[in-house]
């Protein structure tokens, strides 16, 4: 592997050299395996920086529970992966550690905030990498790096020992090469049998949200149409209208993070460096190094989200969860299927704006438009690669992905559907 082509993947390597790339897709997890860990998940004796100078010097004494479980099953931590600073973005363009470059095209982003996690798997450095997800930070990097991403139901996996943004939306998840790996690791963490999963229908019914078939990059639209046509020969696929659900999740998402993030970050830094909460928050705002992240934090400091607005956002989220269950139950849908993101990977440096469909639009709302609602709903999702598409002459082909989204606390069922879809996609030209 050309290390220059994959610059920016790591924040810390215990052996000072990165693992050698090899065919990790067929690794037997029961025989022991290497795995990477996003830099905001604590590993004993390794610097949990969250990709930021703010947490410089934070050296955890204990592994986070998820890391400890993987170690008990034969896992070896290969290193800590780079990320968007403090998980506050979707490009992993990190001012301290450098941008995480896309393994398919080093001029493009690996996505974020768990960009290093997905890139390490895509580059063949490790078969498994742990990441975190607030608003799409597992799904987006999985898609643009062409790997499998699993975001469990919020609260299903222990979140202790991680530096996050939201107690309502955060979860640890993973990137890997195979759905089977995600099934195995989920069973280890939850102590549930990975093979006990049933859908309501012998032939799973997949629902496509009508809102997520609009305003797609032409390359994404063409590939999703091919995927839909192919899967329709083997599974039942219908369209569902979730516009009211998405309106409610959109009304909820911003103030939930805006209220919770300052409190979560302050508490994490206060515990790590033995500071008061007020001093910790001042340090968070003052020492963020990435301009986009610093701008967000300064805005939160200058205009804090009021408790009444936060309470209203929680009401919107609760309403969205109720409507989601009602719509999918009435439609008889076992899981949703849709393009993970409407566009192709962004270029390095496109942190705020991107040209989409001939117009300059904000990057964050575009890239989180499809995967963000599920994080407010707290439901599980699996991102699957569906091949590479042409961009232009003399430019590298780029990955496209789909997202399967299920019901809260029915993760084994969703993973079983994902494994079936994964097998069918192997037949796709």
Short structural summary:
By secondary structure, the protein is of the alpha+beta class.
**What is the CATH H-level superfamily?**
Amidase signature (AS) domain
The average pLDDT is 95
Q: How many angstroms does the end-to-end distance come to?
A: 27 Å
Topology order in helix (H) and strand (E) letters: EEHEEEEEHEHEEHEHEHHHHEEEHHEEH
Which oligomeric form is depicted? single chain
- Principal-axes geometry comes out as globular
Class by SSE composition: alpha+beta
Number of strands: 17
Q: Residue share in helices?
A: 25-40%
Largest sheet: 11 strands, mixed
CATH architectural group: Alpha-Beta Complex
**Count of separate structural domains:** 1
Widest sheet: strand order? 1-3-2-8-10-9-16-17-13-11-12
Name the poorly predicted regions: 1-5
What CATH calls the topology is Amidase signature (AS) enzymes
What percentage of amino acids are in beta strands?
Answer: 15-25%
């Amino acid at each position: 592997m050309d290390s220059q082509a994959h610059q920016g993947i790591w924040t810390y390597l215990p052996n000072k050299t990165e693992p050698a790339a090899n065919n990790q897709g067929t690794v037997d997890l029961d025989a022991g395996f290497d795995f990477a860990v996003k830099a905001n998940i604590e590993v004993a004796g390794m610097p949990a920086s969250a990709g930021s100078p703010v947490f410089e010097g934070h050296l955890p004494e204990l592994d986070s529970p998820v890391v400890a479980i993987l170690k008990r099953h034969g896992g070896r931590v290969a290193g800590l992966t780079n990320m968007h600073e403090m998980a506050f973005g979707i490009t992993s363009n990190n001012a301290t550690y450098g941008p995480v470059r896309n393994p398919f095209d080093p001029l493009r982003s690996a996505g974020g905030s768990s960009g290093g996690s997905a890139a390490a798997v895509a580059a063949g450095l490790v078969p498994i990498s742990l990441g975190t997800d607030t608003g799409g930070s597992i799904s987006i990097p999985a898609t643009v790096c062409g790997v499998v991403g699993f975001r469990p139901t919020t609260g299903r996996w222990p979140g202790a020992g991680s530096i996050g943004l939201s107690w309502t939306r955060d979860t640890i998840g993973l990137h890997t090469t195979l759905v089977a790996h995600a099934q195995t690791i989920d069973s280890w963490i939850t102590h549930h049998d990975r093979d006990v999963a049933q859908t309501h229908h012998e032939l799973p019914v997949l629902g496509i949200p009508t809102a997520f078939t609009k305003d797609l990059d032409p390359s994404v639209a063409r590939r999703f149409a091919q995927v839909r046509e192919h899967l329709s020969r083997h599974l039942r696929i219908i369209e569902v209208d979730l516009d009211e659900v998405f309106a409610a999740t959109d009304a909820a998402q911003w103030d939930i993070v805006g209220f919770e993030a300052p409190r979560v970050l302050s508490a994490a830094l206060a515990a790590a460096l033995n500071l008061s909460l007020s001093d910790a928050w001042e340090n968070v705002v003052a020492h963020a190094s990435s301009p986009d992240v610093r701008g967000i934090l300064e805005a939160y400091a200058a205009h804090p989200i009021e408790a009444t607005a936060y309470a209203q956002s929680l009401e919107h989220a609760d309403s969205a969860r109720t409507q989601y269950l009602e719509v999918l139950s009435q439609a008889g849908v076992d899981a949703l299927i849709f393009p993970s993101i409407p566009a192709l990977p962004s270029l390095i440096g496109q942190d705020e704006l991107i040209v989409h469909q001939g117009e300059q639009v904000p990057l964050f709302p575009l890239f989180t438009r499809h995967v963000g609602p599920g994080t407010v709903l707290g439901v599980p999702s699996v991102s699957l690669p569906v091949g590479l598409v042409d961009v232009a002459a003399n430019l590298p082909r780029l990955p496209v992905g789909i997202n399967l989204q299920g019901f809260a606390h029915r993760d084994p069922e969703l993973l079983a559907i994902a494994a079936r879809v994964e097998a069918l996609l192997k037949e796709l030209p």
